[in-house]
Amino acid sequence: MDELTQGTRIYYSGDMANIEGFGHIRKVLLSKWGTNYNILMEDGREKNVSHSAFGPEYSGHCNPRFVTETAYNEYKQKQIKKFVGTLESADTGKPVDVYADENGLLTI
């Protein structure tokens, strides 16, 4: 997992009561009970999260709730490659050009 420092971009997978989203670590809070992070989400929400809520890899669901934006983007790229492979095998084997914009929307 990337080192979690002030300014690290994160992805929160959300839960039943809270929407998913991106944000960044505003403060790293060290105490005798461990490391916590004060996170500011892009939509203005603020969260205080323990280090144990973060995972090294995103797997497309809610466990872990928090990952780095890098880990989220790696998962997204793997999914796009799988999708392209499915298109190519369903067709005549011809390459398919698929592009993802900054929001993850695909264009074929």
Helix content: 10-25%
Major beta sheet summary: 5 strands, antiparallel
User: What is the helix/strand order?
Assistant: EEEEEHEE
Distance between the termini: 32 Å
Average pLDDT figure: 84
**Spatial extent as radius of gyration:** 17 Å
* Largest sheet: spatial strand order: 4-3-2-1-5
Decide which structural class fits the backbone.
Answer: alpha+beta
Separate helix tally: 1
> Which blocks of ≥5 consecutive residues have pLDDT under 50?
none
How would you describe the overall organization of this protein?
With 108 residues, the chain is of the alpha+beta class. It has one domain. It has one helix at residues 69-90; strands spanning 9-12, 21-31, 34-41, 46-50, 66-68, 99-100, 106-107. The strands form 2 sheets. Strands 4-3-2-1-5 form a 5-stranded antiparallel beta sheet. A hairpin with a 5-residue loop joins strand 6 and strand 7. The mean pLDDT is 84.
How does the SSE layout of this entry go?
Blueprint: E1 9-12, E2 21-31, E3 34-41, E4 46-50, E5 66-68, H1 69-90, E6 99-100, E7 106-107
Antiparallel strand pairs: 1-2, 1-5, 2-3, 3-4, 6-7
Q: Which labels suit this protein?
A:
108 residues, alpha+beta, five-stranded antiparallel sheet, two-stranded antiparallel sheet, 32% strand, elongated
Write a short abstract of this structure.
This protein has one helix at residues 69-90; strands spanning 9-12, 21-31, 34-41, 46-50, 66-68, 99-100, 106-107. By secondary structure, the protein is α+β, with helices and mostly antiparallel strands.
